[in-house]
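Form 7-S
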Amino acid sequence: GGQGSLYNMELLYNPNGTVDGNPESLKLNNPYNHTNGTVVIADRGDDKETYRWNFQMRNARGRDDYGPLVELMQAFSLSGSALDAATQQIMDVDQWMRTWAMFSLNGNDDLYTRVFDHNYRMFVRPEDGKIIGMPWDLDRAFQIATNAPLWGDENLRNVIELPTNKRLFYGHAHDIINTTANAEYMTTWATHFGQLTGQSFAAQVSYISARSSFVLGQLPGEFAFSIATADPLDVGAASTATIGGRAWVDVREIRVAGSVLPLDITWNVTPQGTSAAGPWADGWQATIPVDTSTGLVTLLAFDHQGNLVGTDTITISSTAPRPIVDQLRIVELMYNPPGGGDGEEYLEIMNVSATPIASLAGVHFNGGLTFTFGDVPLAAGERAVIVRDAAAFEARYGTGVNVVGEYTGSALDNGGEELTLVDGDGALVQQFTYDDTGDGWHPTTDGDGYSLVVLDAGGETSSWNDGAAWRASREVGGSPGERDLYLGDFDGNDRVDLVDLVFLQSRLGTAAGATRSTGDLTGDGAVNRSDVAALAARFGRVATPSSLGGSPAAAAAVVVERQLDQRPVRRGALVAARVDRILADSELAPGRRRSRHVGSMDDTAAVDASAVSATEMGAESNLRARRVSRSLGLEDFRLEGSGHRRPG
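Output:
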């Protein structure tokens, strides 16, 4: 809040007396009058000096920025739809309506639009640049008549009396009365403070009760929430349906039953939308996503406190498919990178189905962060990443990751938050809350360098709320854009073993263009002895369901590189072919197709069926290592530790 400009609306104070009665003598600060000059929120031109004296800067003075105030003042001088559009742009209209509903109920007369036009402050909210209203100097509360109009005069009246704003004002007044501005609630506090101070506050309680009763009597007559659209509704092949109806002032949100997302409502005036103060927005209209599974749709209406205040139903039929809701999932989060910065944050999505997604256009986050996907296809099983800072991400991970954009707004919350992903029509794809150190969650992902990785990308979406459905990544930095494996686990069997070593040998000598999955374990684009060292440090690691990823200690193994053949590419191909034959003859489970090349991750997935489990890493592992080593003739490597030795 310290960065936002704060404008204090104030009158000119003219002293009425001097110390000795002589007009030329020193002036007294009291008594005084306000007879010279009035203050209204209205256009005074573009020069900030014309605003300075009546709208004093009370925060961020060094910046001396009157631009937002000038824009607000000029907006207030408009009318009709132009006034509506301009004020929606520069101010938080909903917040203003609640503030002025509160003023109406507490009866302060020393306030803009009542007796004296001052004692109102306006703050520029740094997050979005919109101006909010702030109460100031309330010592003359409970002074206006209990039957005084709900709002005062000046240009503010024109803003409040816009039909949609009037609905907001009525709704906030009704909510404040139900929750606080009533005799039952206030008597508790009046009694409490009366005992503390030794004085009675009965008169204030009586005023609040009388004023609230009058305000309630000025609200439009109550009626039930309803859908007015003809029922049933057939929209053909359309993927959305537009419906409408009426809702009283207590309705704050409308949702489709089964969804946690409020609908985007357009309010309007129906022929029945009249009140003591003229027309108000009693009608609503919303566009909802529909598909082949849509039938009976139930709408739920909620008040300001989240209480259900009305329901209605309509039957809608559509022939539109909506596969993306079942195809797309969030599978990895780097929400708190090491070092305290946000630049290396990322979020990974995946097409978890066997069917390609033609386009992600319109898919967006409706909570947690701000990002809308473009016309991006996603093949079956393909992953894509959105990042906080593309330059910082590339510096850390290189250019081989499928990055489809940068998200804006707030960074991912280091303490956990709710994320909501919807498709282009607003249909819910996923909504869940992740955590950092909560019960069942993974503290190593909170600044230690590990990412959150979902265990079952095809599981029930409700499980994403449970820490048990996630684990920490296998390695520091996570695995953006690819399956999360130990570094060096080329065949994807959740272990780093001899088969991975053979694969790495087959790639030795690659000078450029290599990726993590094709042998480059150090991120320099080449496959060389530094990658051998990286694999050696992880040799023997086996993933278990309880693994936190990256934390298990590596088995004691050292790979010592000898003089390499001067023809590594040709020799690597020969080694790969011999590995292929051995695995086909002695390792693959019956019925699995043989790999054509050890380097093909799709084909070598067959190795998973015969992978030695963590509990079998004993004599069988030694036997397997000796058999494969002998058949391959690994002259370039000597394996020490973990029982793996090249036969002499």
